[in-house]
Write a structure and sequence with these properties.
With 226 residues, this protein is mainly α. It has 2 domains: 34 residues; 162 residues, no CATH class. The protein has 7 helices and 2 strands, in the order H-H-E-E-H-H-H-H-H. The protein has a two-stranded antiparallel ribbon with strand order 1-2. A hairpin with a 2-residue loop joins strand 1 and strand 2. Helix 3 packs parallel to helix 5. The termini are far apart.
Length: 226
């Protein structure tokens, strides 16, 4: 009895040779060097173009964050004067540009009073939260939940400022504005709000005079900076 899965005795089976696939020797034949070179060149070109695309879009919408913190004490003092009292600003509102790497770039805030920064908005935001907590404590209403509520409302207000500024720039047919520019201009509002809170602590009714004035000044400063 023969095994149905084996070979019959006395019969030699031809050797089995695996057939190479259609592309089995594509990278081992004479043209393998040319194929590898072509793939490497295509891959390098693809990676370079992708990196350039991402870098251009990052610069287009976010710019360089370090640019917005290149400030000094003199800039902060002069900028606060422009923010809080824009009608007394003597000079132009145009930002100073300079050629860098074959294209025009704006000078950092330390060299241009009209350049937006993020130092003042973040400091003003923190000051506003601290003053709000102090006001709540002065009124006997201080709680961690109340501070969190003020913090959340302030962030939402900042985000709404960005949407409003973006809409105004788009409606006026302006070009693409970096996102951090809009964050800076929207954050200047907290400098005026902090001053309004201080005035309210000194005299409650002064708040109703200072607040409209600050709103007008913030509007002038933000729009002139665009």
């Amino acid at each position: 009895m023969y095994d149905s899965y084996g070979n019959s005795p006395g019969i030699q089976m031809p050797p089995q040779h695996s057939q190479p696939g259609q592309f089995g020797n594509a990278f081992n034949g004479p043209s393998s060097g040319l194929i590898r070179t072509g793939l490497e060149a295509y891959g390098g070109k693809f990676l370079d173009s992708s990196s350039e695309f991402m870098q251009s879009n990052i610069n287009r919408y976010f710019s360089n964050p370090q640019y917005y913190f290149h400030v000094n004490d003199q800039y902060v003092r002069n900028k606060l004067k422009v923010i809080l009292f824009p009608f007394f600003h003597r000079g132009h509102w145009t930002r100073i540009s300079e050629p860098v790497g074959g294209r025009l770039s704006y000078k950092p805030p330390i060299y241009d009073i009209n350049a937006p920064d993020l130092y003042i908005p973040f400091m003003a935001f923190g000051s506003f939260i601290v003053l709000a907590g102090f006001t709540l404590g002065f009124m006997g209403k201080f709680t961690p939940e109340a501070i969190n509520l003020h913090f959340t409302r302030a962030l939402i207000g900042w985000a709404l400022q960005l949407v409003i500024l973006k809409g105004l720039v788009y409606s006026m047919g302006g070009g693409e504005v970096p996102l951090l520019d809009l964050v800076a201009y929207g954050g200047y509002l907290f400098a005026g709000l902090s001053l309004a809170v201080v005035s309210r602590l000194i005299w409650a009714y002064s708040y109703y005079v200072v607040m409209p004035w600050m709103s007008l000044c913030m509007g002038v400063c933000s729009w002139s900076g665009q």
